[in-house]
Specification:
Distance between the termini: 86 Å
Structural class: mainly beta
Length: about 140
């Protein structure tokens, strides 16, 4: 036997009845554009033949992290942006900027076959990387 939709109520706590976000058949509650204020214990209550049955469920709204640039521009977690033409960044879950340089695809050729990017993501072709070795004994260290 089906239950009349008017006998199903959604709410938070004991007093606050919800009317927004409930489907026409009253079987589904949708919370759109949720924010931290929507964090709550919600209640679904059904009445039939004078008997009331209810259940609660928790909604834990997790807000995305926000990264803020020194100029005041903000980006949400996961958003990708280019602060300059040669750099791509994203905002991580801790609100930190994670950036990497964008390679233009041009190969470095001999005598400078290795590509190197400075802190402004300017690409420079440099000679092969050097090798550093160290040895030691109880009295002398050689580098």
């Amino acid at each position: 036997m089906l239950m009349s939709a008017r006998r199903i109520l959604f709410g938070t706590g004991e007093t606050r009845k919800l009317s927004k976000g409930i489907s026409k058949n009253k079987l589904k509650l949708t919370i759109s554009d949720a924010d931290a204020d929507d964090d709550a214990e919600y209640r679904c209550e059904a009445t039939k033949d004078g008997k009331v049955n209810s259940d609660t469920f928790n909604v834990d709204v997790v807000m995305p992290a926000i990264c803020e640039h020194e100029d005041g521009t903000t980006w949400e977690e996961g958003e990708i942006y280019n602060p300059q033409e040669t750099e791509e960044c994203s905002c991580d879950s801790q609100g930190e900027h994670v950036c990497e340089c964008i390679d233009d695809g041009e190969e470095c050729e001999d005598p400078t076959p290795v590509a190197w990017f400075d802190d402004k993501c300017v690409k420079t072709c440099v000679p092969n990387t050097g090798v550093c070795s160290a040895t030691a004994d109880p009295f002398y260290r050689t580098f």
